[in-house]
Amino acid sequence: MCRWPVASLVLCFWLLDRSHCNSSLQDSMRALHRSFAVSLYQTLTGVENDSNLILSPVSVSFSLALLQLGARGNTRAQLEGALGYNVHDAHVRDFLLRWQGNVSSSGQGTWLQQTCTLLVQSGVQLLTEFTQHASAWANTSVVRANFSQPSHAGSRPEGWGAGPSGGSSGEPSGSSGSGEAQAEAQAEAGWWGHRLQVALVNTVAFRGVWQKQFMSSHTQNLPFLLADGTAVKVPMMYQVAEVSFGQFRTAGDLRYTVLELPYLGRALSLQLVLPSDRKARLAALEAQLSARQLASWDTGLRRTKMDIFLPRFRMQNKFNLRSVLPAMGISDAFNPTAADFNGISVEEGLYVSDAFHEVRIEVTEDGTKAGAATAMVLLKRSRAPVFKADRPFLFLLRQLDTGSILFMGRVMNPADQAP
């Protein structure tokens, strides 16, 4: 009989337990991020009109986690309650930092960049512990701002942070850093100059190439049915491909389909969500979405050869989350008299005056900017099932290994292009 030394047995059990804990933490964090993504999306749809919409749930959650590092008392409790986790837990913080390191990346055929900037009123003495923790957050910087003189936009980055505005060599043309958002934050917060403030600026951008590209010669101008029943002609991409596809039902018995298109390298994918009934309003599906349904897609999709019709679209949104997050239970952070950020500075009166979130996305045949619309061509249709996004639909751009929902939004009118 083989006898293992007691020390070896203890080591084996420790490794097994550690592996189980890491797996359990990852599963829990995935579930919490899905829940936050759905909650944030549904909150935004409640205040936005029936227009194109895009946001980055993972980017917003990382920004709030950064704020949680410096929050205390009820302010911290509200942030923790909205996110579902405590970043002061070393295991959670280490997990988030590893996770966040994968969000801002450039890989095979993809470019993904997020930045987070804390604009802090000049003269506020920051705590060393906070700046050390904040410096570990990827692409994060602290910038000194004079909110009482918004016309003087001279901001000085702290030496320990990564600059937020310098674009990388892979950055898509026409994209901007957070400089304009910083200036706007200072301008809008200027009239609060008698108080000490923090403005949170978050930007995120993505550009990807499909694993199987659409041929531009197959793109046709086809009708897209708007929510009000009218139709507009839009450039509709087409291909036959074997993809992950599934049919689902909400708790309210609303049937819908999910199609997943991978990007080059298969690290990222775009999930398209379409009500099965052509007469069903997308708003009904949005209201019935849940984190549990999103989780069911991981096991409910099957490889299927399909005819795929997908409109080209490009959109950009910018929100001031100051009007959104209180509906999710985060209110004290924006209240000059209730905010408690004694973990950022011991000076009283520090609160979040603004929280800007800017995001943009473009979906084309190959993932790069497309040229002029191509001429209409005749296509030889296969006998495969058809997924035709010719009416309003949802989309989610996910990171496959972590399950992070990098982008989430809806296309109400592909002809309504972002500037």
Which ranges are low-confidence, i.e. pLDDT below 50, for 5 or more consecutive residues? 1-19, 151-178, 184-194, 368-382
CATH class of the largest domain: Alpha Beta
At CATH level 3, the topology of the largest domain is Antithrombin, Chain I, domain 2
Radius of gyration: 23 Å
The SSE order reads HEHHHEEHEEHEEEEEHHEEEEEE
> Average pLDDT across residues?
78
**DSSP summary: helix tally:** 8
What is the architecture of the largest domain at the second tier of CATH?
2-Layer Sandwich
The proportion of strand residues reads 25-35%
State the separation between the terminal residues, measured CA to CA.
Answer: 74 Å
Report on the biggest sheet.
Answer: 9 strands, mixed
**Overall 3D geometry?**
elongated
Helix amount: 25-40%
Tell me the CATH superfamily of the largest domain: Antithrombin, subunit I, domain 2
Question: What's a concise summary of this model?
Answer:
This protein is 27% helix and 30% strand.
Written overview of the protein:
This protein has 419 residues and is α+β, with helices and mostly antiparallel strands. It is 27% helix and 30% strand. The protein contains eight helices and 16 strands. The chain has helices spanning 6-47, 57-70, 73-83, 90-101, 128-135, 179-189, 282-288, 291-300, and strands at 53-55, 105-107, 110-121, 140-145, 156-157, 197-208, 220-225, 231-249, 255-262, 268-275, 302-311, 313-320, 351-363, 386-388, 393-399, 405-411.
